Amino acid sequence: MLKQACPECTGDVPVAPEIELNEILECAECMAELEIVSRDPLIMALAPEAEEDWGE
User: Fold this and answer.
1) Which residues of 5-38 are buried (b: 16+ CB within 10 A; e: fewer)?
2) Neighbours of 44 (CB within 10 A)
3) Would you write out the chain's pLDDT as a tens digit for each of its 56 residues?
């Protein structure tokens, strides 16, 4: 299991070697939702908030 620093709190986030691109993880320390934006090199970013479209 790999560890990557959370971009929000810099806490360690465990990442499985078979992680998929765009997969969402949660930081156990700050509870931020993180998205895998690159696998090589491994890069995580804060996941975008889901926006309501209100049927438009």
Assistant:
1) ebebeeeebebeeeeeeeeebebeeeebebebee
2) 23
3) 889 999 999 999 999 999 999 999 999 999 999 999 999 999 999 998 876 666 65
CA 19 from centre of chain = 11
Altogether, the residues listed in the chain come to a count of 56
Peptide bond before residue 17 is cis, with ω within 30 degrees of 0:
no
- Kindly report the pTM of this predicted structure: 0.81
Taken in order 48, 33, 30, 42, is the CA torsion positive or negative? negative
